[in-house]
Specification:
heterodimer; A: 279 residues; alpha/beta; Rossmann fold; 8-stranded mixed beta sheet; 11 helices; 8 strands; B: 375 residues; 2 domains; 5-stranded mixed beta sheet; 12 helices; 16 strands; 23% strand
Chain lengths: 279, 375
């Protein structure tokens, strides 16, 4: 009989309480990751949480399984090497919108293009929480942050579309309010061959919520419920209505060989060719 | 062993493969590109990987990742790329990840003169990344040493669980010489494996008696926790002042306490020198010839061709120069190593013999400078 794991086996209970603020969504996402690993019965030594810098970056401090925390924005580049060395390791990259969409966007696009075998889970709280609530690439235009006191002058970016275009096998979006969907998307992401990308809208009541009078954490969760629509309903909305809502659901789900498998096949062909030049 | 005729960059690549390297990630840059091209051709043949990343930030990141997965890993670049790698070089130092970074130095700063050599990244190698730290940096002076010191760099990286920099340069990289190389399998390599301790008791950052941790490759039953933050022995982050101080101390002493294990300077010339020439890399080639000519001309000059630049071999230099009155430092920059020599030899006259104009320093100009001072 093999061992059996519950989600509790993946959480480092002796490391709690965590450093995330009351009302932050990251704990829910981390539990979603633990539940997905348990559901898939992945042994802790065959799972890796890879994070960057920022609030989400601390996730590795609260897990019992393998942990990698790199430098700001570079997590998916580190993961490229880890994936080559350990192709059977399930790599879950839990990253923030500042880390992955600003300083790390280059690596995200190239990881999606290569279709690196990594589950990328984004805790998108629409600002830099760790450093005091500065605006990020997903902070909506005209909103208030600690570096946009008169309203952010820049537009935001839709990273689900970017990652889908770049070639990821799986692209989805959900929120920390939709916990059942969150759990099922993370599970799908871990099981996907190639790059899977799940953007999780997550409240930051301490900064983004407070600066923009969005109420307390409960109010912000209520907004996630009321202002989101399933993708197919969202698409039917007239253009001017779309701005008022977020979509959630699966945007892309396709079969595409992952980067390391592709590379290993290439190397095998080369070796079969006795190391000669490839035509 | 067999003999082959290759250029410095290829020799580094061959050395890496002989040392068991299975992973190269890089980004094209003059004058290091031949190393990437070599790896793209040879790594897949030995069951290894050549990844061409989106930039040098990603290149060294992938190298570190692959090393944490247990593969002997390296990258090669030049000044501008080396500048981009500094942040993750610091990561590899703090997280104690073995890896090799070959810096084929070119004339800088900035884009400088891309196709011309330089030796001006000496202090960058030492202090390029932020925070207190210690680094190992080696400097080959021949194509044979490009091969030998690359092998040595991989072994030292594993021995000390730290990144090692190889400071080549644009002239050496493209110099072709006959060298001796190992036949396939002649050099025995033991890949990093899981520790012998039971997985439940394993602490990734508990150092051994020499101050070095054993990072179990990811995927083994031994859980590995790696972070860029100051961390405890379990690999969890902490801001505890005692932990922070002890960690910084250990990162230094694990290397500086074992300097005798690092490649030693090659000494030439007079056995009882009243003047010493200190040099390294391609400059040392010219300096050695200069010393040879001068000693034939009845001078008593000794020469140190440094193989390890960092940590700076202070004791060896002090010992070797103990009888000398004058010390000449020959280097292709504005005096980066000269300052270090002055620091450790107070009371001695230290004379820089420098060239920083994109050209390789010649024996003739070294001879002229030394004669001018000694006569």
């Amino acid at each position: 009989m093999s061992e059996s794991y519950s989600f509790e086996d993946y959480i480092a209970w002796d490391r709690l309480p965590h450093m995330w603020c009351a009302g932050c969504g990251h704990g829910i996402t981390l539990k979603g990751i633990a539940m997905a690993l348990a559901d898939l019965q992945i042994p802790p030594h065959k799972a890796l949480i890879a994070s960057g810098i920022g609030c989400s970056g601390r996730a590795g401090d609260y897990v019992t399984f393998n942990r990698f925390q790199g430098t700001h924005g570079r997590t998916l580049a580190f993961a490229t090497g880890i994936n080559a060395a350990c192709p059977d390791l399930k790599i879950i990259a839990f990253l923030g919108d500042g880390d992955c969409y600003a300083i790390g966007i280059n690596h995200l696009i190239h990881a999606a293009r290569r279709n690196l075998n990594v589950a990328v889970i984004i805790g998108n709280n629409r600002n830099y929480g760790m450093t005091g609530g500065q605006f990020s690439p997903t902070t909506p235009q005209n909103t208030i942050t600690s570096t946009s006191r008169y309203g952010k002058p820049e537009p935001e970016i839709d990273m689900c579309s970017v990652v889908a275009e770049a070639g990821a096998s799986f692209v989805a979006r959900t929120t920390v309010y939709h916990t059942v969907e969150l759990f099922s998307f993370i599970k799908k992401a871990i099981n996907t061959q190639g790059l899977s990308f799940v953007e999780v809208l997550s409240p930051c009541p301490t900064y983004f919520g407070r600066y923009n009078n969005l109420g307390n954490a409960v109010d912000m969760f209520r907004t996630l419920k009321e202002k989101t629509l399933p993708l197919k309903d969202y698409e039917k909305l007239p253009h001017e209505e779309k701005e008022k809502f977020f979509w959630h659901g699966i945007k892309v789900q396709r079969e595409r060989v992952d980067f390391i498998t592709e590379y290993n096949n290439y190397a095998k062909r080369l070796q079969a060719n006795k190391g000669g030049e490839m035509s | 062993m067999r003999q082959i005729f290759v250029q410095g960059n290829e020799a580094c690549g061959l050395g890496a493969i002989a040392a068991g390297a299975k992973f190269f990630a890089g980004y094209p840059i003059t004058p290091a590109s031949e190393l990437a091209e070599f790896c793209s051709k040879e790594m897949p043949k030995v069951g290894g990987y050549y990844f061409q990343m989106e930039d040098e930030l990603a290149s060294i990141a992938a190298v570190i990742g692959a090393s944490l997965g247990g593969l002997r890993s390296f990258t090669a670049t030049s000044g501008p790329g080396m500048s981009l790698m500094q942040e993750n070089l610091g990561f590899a130092i703090l997280a104690e990840v073995p890896c090799v970074i070959i810096n084929v130095q070119r004339f800088g700063p900035s884009t400088g003169v891309a196709t011309r050599p330089g030796q001006a990244d000496i202090m960058q190698a030492r202090w390029g990344t932020h925070g207190d730290h210690t680094i190992i940096a080696l400097a080959p002076a021949s194509v044979q040493e490009c091969y030998d010191l690359t092998i040595e760099a991989f072994n030292l990286a594993e021995r000390f669980s730290t990144p090692v920099i190889l400071l080549s340069d644009g002239a050496l990289a493209h110099l072709r010489e006959k060298i001796s190389v190992y036949d396939d399998g002649e050099l025995e390599i033991t890949p990093r494996s899981a520790p012998e301790i039971e997985p439940e008791k394993y602490l990734p950052y508990r150092p051994n008696e020499k101050g070095v941790p054993h990072l179990s490759p990811y995927g083994n039953r031994h859980i590995l926790r790696v972070t860029s933050l100051i961390h405890d022995e379990k690999g969890y982050s902490t801001a505890n002042p005692t932990t922070a101080r002890c960690q910084l101390e250990r990162l230094e002493t694990k290397i500086t306490g074992y300097q005798e294990e690092l490649p030693q300077a090659k000494c030439y010339g007079s056995k009882n020198p009243d003047a010493v020439v200190i040099s390294f890399g391609i400059s040392a080639r010219a300096a050695r010839q200069a010393v040879h000519f001068l000693n034939n001309d009845n001078f008593e000059i000794g020469m140190m061709d440094l193989k390890t630049i960092w940590p700076f071999p202070e004791k060896n230099i002090q010992e070797y120069c103990s009888q000398a009155e004058k010390v000449f430092v020959v280097e292709m920059n504005r005096g980066q190593l000269t300052g270090e020599v002055e620091r450790i030899l107070p009371g001695l006259e230290v004379i820089p013999v420098l060239r920083a104009d994109t050209q390789v320093i010649s024996p003739q100009e070294i001879i002229e400078k030394i004669k001018e001072v000694l006569r």
